[in-house]
Write a structure and sequence with these properties.
Length: 76
């Protein structure tokens, strides 16, 4: 059962300057979020799908936090 065409509660990452996106911590967190998003799309059991979607959202939040830190570091 594919999730194509289904709406999810996932949010798009915030648009940020490319220099901030290059921060290794941001890239790593976004990679983890993508991994969990893929696992959620492949999950058959609703409970596992929800877990993977929750983990994806957490990693996107972590990436946003690293973006803030990177943007503050760039201004100093």
């Amino acid at each position: 059962m594919a999730l194509e065409g289904r709406e999810t509660k996932r949010q798009k990452p915030l648009a940020v300057a490319p220099a901030v996106e290059d921060a290794p911590e941001v890239k790593q967190a976004l990679t983890k979020a993508q991994e969990y998003g893929k696992l959620a799309a492949e999950a058959v059991e609703p409970r596992k799908r929800e877990y993977f979607l929750r983990m994806e959202r957490k990693w996107l939040g972590i990436a946003d936090g690293w973006r803030v830190i990177a943007s503050v570091d760039k201004t100093q």
